[in-house]
Amino acid sequence: MRFDEAYSGKVFIASRPDYDTAEAVLFGLPMDWTVSFRPGSRFGPNRIREVSIGLEEYSPYLDKELTDINFFDAGDMPLPFGNPAKSVTLIREYVDQLLRDKKFPFAMGGEHLVTLPIVQAVFQHHPDVLLLHIDAHTDLRDDYEGEALSHSTPVKKIAEMIGPENVYSFGIRSGMKEEFAYAKASGLHLYRDHVLAPLKEVLPSLAGKTVYLTVDIDVLDPASAPGTGTQEIGGITSKELLDAIHAIAASDVNVVGCDLVEVSPPYDNSDQTAIAASKYIREMLLGFIK
């Protein structure tokens, strides 16, 4: 189940070579077909792999090593350039196969639209799934410039599928007036500006629940993550996001899949954003794979 035709040979640090025995599968979704400002996130997954060599395999936060878990890096999925509809279908089918094979799906984006087909597949296997959404943007539009499949629309479409009351958005500081109105009227849980404090308040009420986590790197302040396509000032620190990941890992929720999206290397001259993303991925792998 490795994407051999497009695979560069680079893998995330400590990845194991065997799909069949792996508990989790890390895979890249190199797609930025619908971005509304600056493209480039299709290069994110591979650059995250490249800089992961600078990581320690050991997490002092969790007292675990990547060698303690068995995960497989499948490489980047070949996606049809400029075709969001076909790309969404291919991603959904792939994640469905991962879940049938009892693998934990962990995606690296790519634009945030990639979360939609992943959650669609997860919903078929876990119809009680909740969404934890950490992002600067609401992503609650119906369409962007007439395109319903857009990086501005995945959370709205997921909310319509699983119920808006089952969506929890944190760190939000940008969106249309209509998007905030929809969240308020629909019962979607939207927490502005901050992540850690509201997350800690919410997590006890979600004990025992099945959740999917999506993290858009632009939740960080641009000072911490310049390498992303749609920066928003006033974001959280890199430490707050790290603490949020650890809070989820320490909670009693059942994380059945996750992604980290919108790392865009062309705007990341020092690799600051990719390096941060690689560390978050290490902590998510160690925290969520039990």
From TrEMBL:
Pathway: Amine and polyamine biosynthesis; putrescine biosynthesis via agmatine pathway; putrescine from agmatine: step 1/1. GO terms for biological process: putrescine biosynthetic process from arginine, via agmatine; spermidine biosynthetic process. Mn(2+) binds at H112, D135, H137, D139, D216, D218. The keyword Metal-binding applies. Its cofactor is Mn(2+). PROSITE patterns: ARGINASE_1, ARGINASE_2. Binds 2 manganese ions per subunit. Its EC number is 3.5.3.11. The keyword Hydrolase applies. It is an enzyme of class 3 (hydrolase). GO terms for molecular function: agmatinase activity; metal ion binding. SUPFAM superfamilies: Arginase/deacetylase. InterPro entries: Agmatinase-rel, Ureohydrolase, Ureohydrolase_dom_sf, Ureohydrolase_Mn_BS. Gene3D superfamilies: Ureohydrolase domain. PANTHER family: ARGINASE/AGMATINASE, GUANIDINO ACID HYDROLASE, MITOCHONDRIAL. Catalyzes the formation of putrescine from agmatine. Belongs to the arginase family. Agmatinase subfamily. This is Agmatinase. It comes from Streptohalobacillus salinus.
